[in-house]
Amino acid sequence: xxxxxxxxxxxxxxxxxxxxxxxxxxxxxxxxxxxxxxxxxxxxxxxxxxxxxxxxxxxxxxxxxxxxxxxxxxxxxxxxxxxxxxxxxxxxxxxxxxxxxxxxxxxxxxxxxxxxxxxxxxxxxxxxxxxxxxxxxxx
Length: 139
What we know:
By secondary structure, the chain is mainly β. It has helices spanning 12-16, 70-79; strands at residues 24-28, 31-38, 41-48, 94-98, 104-108, 113-117, 125-128. Helices cover 11% and strands 29% of the residues. Mean pLDDT is 77; it is low at 132-139.
């Protein structure tokens, strides 16, 4: 008997719960069971499997890829605390990357302002924190 290869997509958040312990996987018909232990107790999570073809195709990114230095990611974490979450102020819902003054990241929510030096691409842009609705104002 041959065993057919299957692909399974599980959110990283759920898998991160098992990173510090032993994890076993068992396929049971249309379900996948993940088993681990916590404080001496057996913990099981059951995921119902859906065919991979039910998910949309992974989009391809066109254009040039850029490697972001780890220092820039650290700087992004610093200024991201000041990004606005107000849907009516969508221009403030992101981090501004500018090559001025050797490179800077800037964010504000209208009350607080954060800026830090960083290695950034040679053109300015805003990295949004969430997609903006095409109708505006979060509607």
